[in-house]
Amino acid sequence: MNLSQHNQFSSKASQLLSWGHWFTFANIGLVLLISLSYLFADSPPTSFMGILYMLVTWLSHTSFITFIAFVLTVFPLSLIFPYPRHIRGMAAILATCGASLLTLDAYVYFNLGYHLSSSALPEIISLLWHRLTSSPALTTLLAGGIVMLIFAFQLLASNYTWHHLARLKQYKFARYASSFLLVCFALSHSIHIWADANLKFDITKQDNVLPLSYPTTAKSLLAKNDLLDIESYKQAHNVKLNTQNMNYLAPAPLARCDNFSAATIDILVFNTDEALTSFAEQHTNLHKTERFLQPSAHQDALFSLIYGLPAYYKPALMTEQTLPVWQSNRRSMSINGFADYDYINNDTANNAAIRIIEADENTTLRADVTQVFAFSLASTEQGIVSASSLYSTDKKVTRIEGLIQPSDLIATSVGQYLGCKTIAQQTMLGVNLYGKKDDMGVNYSQGVFIAYKKDRITLIDSDGNYKNISAAQGFSIEQGLDIPFLVQSIKKLKTFTQ
């Protein structure tokens, strides 16, 4: 009798395990569909190997996650509690929770650039709350509808695979599919090893895209690009950003832009938030954004504003008193109130195309001004960088999705308002906000390299120490160093070096 009960128990468990494999296959298809959003969240790879790696990793990694979830949840339940109806119901609920969590993670990554984590909880809550309050009925309907659709799919897959288990066992699909996914898994890791060894960043930049996948490379990857000082690394596995003996190399041949548009731009720099607010209240045509990211070191912020470059180039350009390369004698720049930049003035303030002035609440705009930017310098107590308020007469600029840096203001002024896009692209790292295609950027201040991607800012000091922070809230994000993104960002920073 005991043997018969044991056989009956084993039979139920065996059936449930067989059903669980088919139920997992159904969920692999659902997870692959949901995880497609990760592939569209960032710029796609441009090489054939990059595209191949993206596809095989998407297939193998998501399938692996789904299978592991089955092994950790449904599999032990099937052995301990082999009652088909209850197991199938619990499996549907667990799978719905997992797929819904994946959908939420995909939404957060698409908007913020990082995955769900406890350290980023305040910004995630802020994102969801903003979405809910901006359109509560539609958001509730969509969120609830997605969860219900996932649950309906789970119930349908659970019941169908159970009632058609005998017929499904006759198919060889599962065997071929499993073999194919194993090949994809092995191929993805092989390609990554090859790409890591040969510095194929079109492949390694994808390390952080899918959830539960983190960079497998080390800081030595940066040293192999001559982007970092490797002396300390060789001695103590510590890398440093190499800023010694840096020379500015102007692009050549330099595009000409003799026919500047007849625009006049006033850029007002206030010393306090109170003065900026008072000025803005007097000018109702100013629009506001809170996404202005600037260094707390005032001289670094001013240099970036004037040259359209990070302060990484400040020693080379200011020592030689090199003028911004876009200037001409007819449409030039006037700087008032900042003595360190008097050498740039080669026109009267009223005739200058761009006027940058130290302002207060009583500052008067030019009568013929066409565009205005106004911001206050950041407090030196706010860390290396901080997000603050920016006012502009250009409503489109303040509606830009993503962060705006001081270098973007001069790049937009020269490239868009003065009609010289080519020279702005050729000579600046600032972005013309009218042509902003992604929410990424680089900067440098107080010996710290700064790179941002959506809401995540990565700071690396001169000793190779790093941290990730939220741009909107300023809290630390406990995530690993995104090596491929970092290397690409440092290469961008060093665009004009010899």
From TrEMBL:
Keyword Repeat: no
Keyword Transmembrane: yes
Domain Inner membrane protein YejM N-terminal: residue ranges: 7-248
Transmembrane segments: 21-41, 61-83, 90-110, 137-161, 173-195
InterPro entries: YejM_N
UniProt keywords, alphabetically: Membrane, Transmembrane, Transmembrane helix
Name of the protein described by the UniProt record: DUF3413 domain-containing protein
Species whose genome carries this gene: Pseudoalteromonas prydzensis
